[in-house]
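Reviewer comment 2.1 asked that we show a complete input and output for one of the modelled complexes. We chose the 4'-deoxy-4'-aminopyridoxal-5'-phosphate case, as it is the one discussed in the main text.
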Amino acid sequence: MAEPPLSHTSPEAAALLLRAINGFREVIGCRTGEVFVIPGSGTAAMEAGVVNCVDPQGTLLVLANGYFGERFAHVARAHGIPVDVVRPVTGRSVTPDELEARLGRGGVRAVAMTHVETSTGVLAPVTELCRVAHAHECLTLVDGVCATAGVEEDMEAMGIDVLVTGSQKAIGMPTGLALLGVGTRGRAARDARDGVPAYYLDVNCWRDSMRDPTRYFATHAMNLVRAFDTAIQLILSEGLASRYARHRRHGDAFRAGIEALDLAPVTDPRYLAPTMSAVRYPPGLNDAAFRSAMKTQGVVVAGGLAELAGLIFRAGHMGNIDDAQVLRLVAAVERSLPGAKPGAGVEATARALHG
Ligand code: PMP
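Response of the prediction step:
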C-alpha cells in the first residue's frame, strides 16, 4: 500500500489487476461471468448491482434480515424501483418457505438478500433462497460484504446471479474497492436495457477496462489494487476450503468463550455466521462503558445498529486471523465484563480450539 503508485494504465498495473481479477473469480466462483473492481465502498457495489441488473418495471423483493438488508430497499427506492420487503424476527433469516409464499403472489422480478447480515450475525441460507427465486424466474442479488472469502460463496454453485461485495472484511484489506460478480443472468438483465440511470456505476462503462486495464475509463485505485492482489493470493494460498473451515472454527470458539461468560448471541443458533457475532448484553451493562473497556485492551468491537443499539456488541472474527487473536478477543470481553469469572471464557475458547 505504501509503495509508490503504478501508473494506472501501465502494463504492470494491468498485469496486477488481471491477476487479482482472475484470483477473485475463483474465490467467488464467477468462472464464466464478469468481475468488476471499482473504487468505492460496499454500498457502491450494492448500488451498482441494483442499478445495472434490477428491472425497474418489476418489483425488487428484499429479504431484510437486518440493517444492511434494508439498505437494498433504500438503494432501489432511490432509483424509483418498486420494492417489497420481507423481515424475519430479529436474529433469524427469511426462510425459503417464506420466500416461496411471497413469490407465489407474483409481481417480483428480482430478489436481494444479505449473505451475512452484519447487524444481527445472521448467515442466510443463500443456496436454498436462490433456488426458490430461480424457480419463480427471479434474478438473485447477494450482498457478500460480510461473507466473501470467509464463508463459501460460489456464485455458480449457489445460484447467485449478481454478487456485490467490498474489500474490507473477510477479504482482509482496507476499505475502498467495490467488487461485483455479474453472472450470465446478471449480464442478460443488463443487456436487456439500453441504458441505466448511472454513469460511474454503469458496468458497461467499466467493461473494457476490466478486460484490458490499459484501457482507461476511470482511474484504478492502484494502491488498493495492489493490496487486493496480495489479499487474493493469500486467500488462494490458504485454500478456500481450509479458510472457510478456519472461520467456522474461530466463530464456534469465540461463541464457546462468551457462552462460558453467560453471554449469548442475539442470533438464532440455526443461522450463526462464521465471520462475526452479535452478542446480547446482560441487563444493566452499559454499551459505551463496555466498548471503551475493550478499546483500552486494544480490541475494537462495534455497537448495535437501529433497534439493537445499546443492547448488543458486534465482534468480527474474520480475515487473516489466528487462534491467538480469538483468544485475545475473548480475554478482552472477559476483562471488560464486570463480575466475570477470570479465565472462564478463555478456557472455554481454548478448549474449543484445541478439542
Ligand atoms: N452490507 C453489509 C453486510 C455490511 O456489513 C456493510 C458494511 N458494514 C455494507 C453492506 C456497506 O458497506 P460499506 O460500509 O463498505 O459501504
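The radius of gyration is 21 Å. We note this here for comparison with the apo prediction described in Section 3.2.
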